[in-house]
Amino acid sequence: MRSPAAPLLTRAALALYPPAWRARYGDEVRALLEDSGGRPAAVASVAWRALPAWLWPRHLHDRPARMRASLATALMSWSMLAGLGLVFAQLTQLQGLIAPDYPQVRWAYAFFDGSLALSALVAGLGGLPLWLLMLRRTRREQRTRDTVYLFLPVIAPVAYLIGLIVTVRLVGGANGVSLGWFGAVTLAGFAAAATAAAGPGLALRRLQPRGPALRVAATAAGLSAAVMAVAAVAIVVAVVSLCLWARQFSGYHNFTAPGIYVALVAVAATVTAVSAARGTRAALAQP
What we know:
Number of domains: 2
């Protein structure tokens, strides 16, 4: 018997895949799932394989399409990694958490700050020509929605900062906001980062740019990811050092929360590096 929720589950599972994958294999997989009755186990198996489809886009034989897909994925994961890094800075450097007599913590802070700034600079300079190219096209063709997508990297952070200032003034005290409000502000920051990264990704999918600007952006994404990997390593070194030698500070006497945080950093760094590397290889192989 076919479950009444089977079509909905099937559509939800397929929605997790890249658009190019759905265009190539979506009808076939949908038919197979419907023939099997849409069992939850089969749908879950399909959904689980969506992550490799983003990381290793073998279905994209068109090199510009591979570069666009890699750029979109790397941009989202890079934004999440940068957000995790800013949370790390807020909870450590800005609170003065430096383990005495252990210079590796100071060095980790310095490497993190420099790597994060350099990675953002490389990504911004390398992606600017592509962004301007797409912006000129949206203005020429009067594509208002795509213009909004391209400006989301500016709109989302500005809206977040305004909301942050208002929140701090309304609920903040002499020592800042409470732990609960800090968690809410942090989650809102990740949502803003995801929105800012999703805008150019949607524009890439809809406009499908090609040419030198796309290759420059893909190459810059690879360089930026390599530099960001240094920042991720610095975060891990600092967190482990604080857990070992600064356990008197709240949050570092138990390895559970720092361990989860380090795992998230590792996942975000891996996705960023893999996606950017594939885009860079496609850019360098372009005739």
